[in-house]
Amino acid sequence: MxxxxxxxxxxxxxxxxxxxxxxxxxxxxxxxxxVWLSEIMLQQTRIEAVKPKFLLFKQTLPTIQDLxxxxxxxxxxxxxxxxxxxRARNLKKCAITLxxxxxxxxxxxxxxxxxxxxxxxxxxxxxxxxAYGLPAAAVDGNVMRVLARYFEITEDIRNETLKKExxxxxxxxxxxxxxxxxxxxxxxxxxxxxxxxxxxxxEARCSICPLQHxxxxxxxETTDTIPYRSALNQRKIIERTxxxxxxxxxxxxxxxxxxxxxxxxxxxxxxxxxLNKKEVIQEVEKHNIHPTHIKRLEDAKHIxxxxxxxxxxxxxxxEQIEHLLQKDYLLLNKQELETKAIPSAFxxxxxxxxxxx
Length: 357
Ligand code: SF4
Known about the structure:
Elements: H1 7-20, H2 32-42, H3 47-60, H4 64-69, H5 72-79, H6 86-101, H7 110-114, H8 121-131, H9 141-151, H10 160-176, H11 180-196, H12 216-219, E1 236-247, E2 250-255, E3 266-267, E4 269-271, H13 277-285, E5 293-303, E6 307-317, E7 329-333, H14 334-339, H15 347-353
Parallel strand pairs: 1-6
Antiparallel strand pairs: 1-2, 1-4, 2-3, 2-7, 5-6
Helix pairs in contact: 1-11, 2-3, 2-8, 8-11, 9-11
Bound molecules: iron/sulfur cluster.
């Protein structure tokens, strides 16, 4: 074993967690559905943004069966604001698999969980250990940061081999103590330390950390430089111009393709280029759209994981809108704009016409 977490320190973490854990809606129970849903929502999304969404989701779809039966549009609406919509689509896909093949239950075993749509090693470890108390490791970026500092690891924490070694370290602890409460509290304790105490950017609060007496980075004052995380490739910048086509209270909306970015969601049509007013007229006339009035709206920017949209937008008023309807297009009035699953990328423009936040 390259790294070995001392069992005494592991117990300190588990006890610290028991006493100091934050009260969060999904922590009132170890219901597997709650654990699964919260872990998926928390990927890439801040805890404060997840809390109200989790409560609303559970209130609307209280069971796995309800999730499997949910209409796609309603699901996307429930997911709005959390971003990365493929997570919601995978949740439903997984719920359908659970209904059809697993008696509408999430399996207990780590390896079985890994076979399900949208469930990777971290989520499988979290469900197996937190919901069922089985000895599985759940290693995410927070866990990597805490243990990289504890062991004073200078390697890149994006390295997959290092991640496997850290998982192994945690599994070794479970060989010494595999009681369900210890398993669950140790995994959640390391995550919680990473979220609340051993935070990034040189702001670790070592004086209140249960590992302060044995953590090498703290003892050697290297917490500012550890962990090392290599930079991801820079995001690609896409210039877009949106055309908000309206006839009075009616807006022309397009449904995106079922694959790729924002798959299956609704959008204002547009092109991948920044156009001036004259170019906009030329572009829309190609599609038989004849504006009676054009108004430039404010610019907006939306950041995805690997790319950024830098958007110009024009409100384009037409006299006749019905003839523009074709496959994958629909006309929505202001009230309907409120209820459709329109991604937050278009939030700024939706807010011109609705009271939607
Ligand atoms: S002692 Fe400091 S650096 Fe070490 S794990 Fe705790 S908070 Fe992180």
